[in-house]
Write a structure and sequence with these properties.
about 200 residues, Glutathione S-transferase Yfyf (Class Pi), Chain A, domain 2, about 55% helix, Glutathione_S-Trfase_N
Length: about 200
């Protein structure tokens, strides 16, 4: 299999963490494919018409894309149980919450990096952060018992989302007022899979 990836993409990191956790890394060839919506990586549209990473090329069928599709495929392949049937929809909801955080955080980055300064929209940026703020509050209250339970794909997704906030939006101080979530993330970040996939500054 070939994984089109960028080492700084938080969506890719979810897949990489799962590969480490399920001991499947040796089964995947990594193909660097860094780009932006304005300049897609060369060759990527042939694998994924949306020109987004991650994309997983496999010999037995069409290329898979969207990190949530890839993580479920790899979990099924390894029979790792990271999408347990007993709490399947909870895991999916937690993963969707984490991906919503990432979507908003990435749009904030694009606004400052890709949009010319005279037409940037600060209120829109703050609106994206408001989504993140609400999601973080929900994680810190409603989801802590799940986060502190057995390892699953929802936890991996949340950890990668929080790591991305540290990586790109550290000045926002997402930990303030969220002691439970911050403590959980500090512990989870010590997992070898998280250490080995941390993005370089």
């Amino acid at each position: 299999m070939r994984l089109y990836y960028s080492p700084t993409s938080p969506y890719v990191r979810k897949v990489m963490v799962l590969l480490h956790e399920t001991e499947q890394l040796a089964s995947v060839e990594l193909v660097t494919a860094s780009g932006t919506p304005l300049a897609p990586a060369e060759g990527l549209p042939a694998a994924n018409p949306l020109s987004k990473v991650p994309a997983l090329e496999r010999p037995e069928g069409p290329t898979l894309y969207d990190s949530r599709v890839i993580t479920q495929f790899l979990d099924t392949r390894a029979q790792a149980g990271l999408y347990p049937r007993a709490r399947y929809f909870d895991v999916l909801t937690l993963e969707a919450t984490a991906d919503g955080i990432l979507d908003a955080a990435l749009l904030m980055v694009y606004e400052s990096r890709l949009r010319p300064e005279p037409i940037r929209f600060p209120e829109w940026v703050e609106g994206q952060w408001a989504k993140i703020d609400r999601a973080l509050d929900a994680l810190n209250t409603r989801w802590m018992s799940h986060l502190n339970g057995p390892l699953d794909a929802g936890q991996i997704a949340v950890a990668c989302a929080l790591g991305y906030l540290d990586f790109r939006h550290d000045a926002r101080d997402w930990r303030r007022g969220r002691d439970a979530l911050a403590a959980w993330f500090e512990a989870f970040s010590r997992r070898p899979s998280m250490v080995q996939t941390a993005p370089a500054a």
